[in-house]
Structure formats: structure tokens, C-alpha cells
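Write out this protein's structure.
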Amino acid sequence: MVITASRKPGVINKKGVLVIDTIYKSIYPFRNNLTIAGDQDGNNMVLLDTAGKRITPPAGIQDANALKAYYEKIPVNERTKGHLIDGRYLVDMGNGITLNVRHGDAYYMDERKYVLWQFAKTADLPHHYDIDYQLMGYYPIKDDPAPVYHCKQALPSGVFSLTVMPDIREAENGFSNAGGYRTILANRSGQAITFNTYDHGLLMRMQAKTNTGDWRDIEDIARGCGNGFSDMTLRSGHYLHLTSPAYSGAIKTKLRLRFTYVSYGRSHTIFSNEFDGSINPGQLWRSEWNFPSTDYLRP
């Protein structure tokens, strides 16, 4: 995969021939020699093969969401996985320097094709989200609020807290069945707390710590019409069960969750515990949809 200076993606084959032109606003990693891309006309999603040819999706797939659901269910293993497409992933850093990923290892290279610096090699982890774009930060609530004494894991006392438990693996949600971590939003503050939900889920974002010590979002805000908002009140001594997506990538780093909510007219932000993880470079800037539109969910 190559990225132009205007941040439009394209795909080249092993002979260096451009097989998918830089006319799409987003291109997903290949799964079993198929990918989906955002069309330049009308922001439609299309199904493409490795030659860039449009493939007619199965009957019954009528919109972008259905096509994405079909793509997520395409079987993938180490032989059919795109590996960020032919092993080359180029991000223009300026002054002739590019950031590349090959066989899961990230490195900087100059115009002479000399490797200037390479990240430490990382072992493959059994995560499902080995992607180079930002997922939407939507976290479905799995169960009704329950008393904290039902939770077998230790939770912070005296506060409204968000806890990610990377040692406890779960299916991320029933739709994709991807890998994830048990996550608990617990209220032990001594008073009820009211916050927004959207379609029985929370709008949160995973963040990654950069090599400069800054925290950057690796998830985009969930998008929709804005009609699914409602209020939820979580009584003190109760918690919500969520699942955070498990990411895997070329760069090891620290991760955490950020939850910003409005309660009684005031904005509040809480962060989860930090935990070890890994990401790919594109997760720091490339949206899953990357389509300009009126977004009623953006704060």
C-alpha cells in the first residue's frame, strides 16, 4: 500500500505496478485477496480484488454497512492475510523520509532505500485487530448494571472508574466476534452518575502513547444520525460490563481508554488504567471511514 502526499491510499503489486489507483478515500487491508474501499463518487464502499477489479458482492448486500459486515467475516489466516499488502506500507514523513512496515517490522527509510532506524521486533500476539486505520470508538453495553460485589475483579474504590483487564479475553461483540479485553465502568463514588449512551453503548476512544510521551487517539468517534442518544444513570455500587478491542501491530506501546461524558451540564473525562499493547502507524491518523460529512456525534 502506498500513501500520497494528500493522504490518499493506493495499492501496488510486487512488480511495482499500481493496481488500485489513488482515487479512493480509504482502502482496507486484504482478506483472502479481497478488500473494500471508499469510492470517489458518493462515498460508496466497493469490493475489489488484488487487480483492483470491482467484484459484485453476494446478493442481499445493499449498503456500506452490509458490505463491511461481509468483509469482516471473510476467512483470513497467515497465508491469505494481506500483511499490509505486499509487505510495503509507505507514509511520507517529508524530506525524502518514509515510514515503512515489512513483515510486521516498522522502520524509517530515505530516498536511497537505506534504513535509517528500525523499531524493535515484536512477537505476534493472538489479537484479531491487526489493522492500519482507526476503528470507531463505540463500546456496546453487554449487560444491565450489576452490583460491584458481583464483579470478581478488584475495582478502584471511592471513584467513578474505567478498568481494562487485558488478561481476561472476550469476544469484542456479537457482530464481529473479534478478540477483546474485559472492561468495567464502575461507580463507587458514593453518588449516582448520569451520562450519555448511544444505541445502548458508550462513545469512548482507545489511546496510544507515542515515543514523545503524548497520548494520541487510535479510534475515531462513532458516526451516525444522532437520534440514538439517551441518558443512563449508574447508581453508586454498580458497574457496566463492556469489551475493549484487542489490537496487534508493529509498534509496542502503552494503551488506555478515554471516556468523556456530560453530567448535569458539566463535561468530565476519565481514563482507564494503562496496559501493554501494540498498534500499526496508520491507527494514529487514518479514519476507518475517512469521509467528510456532517457528523452529529462529534463534540
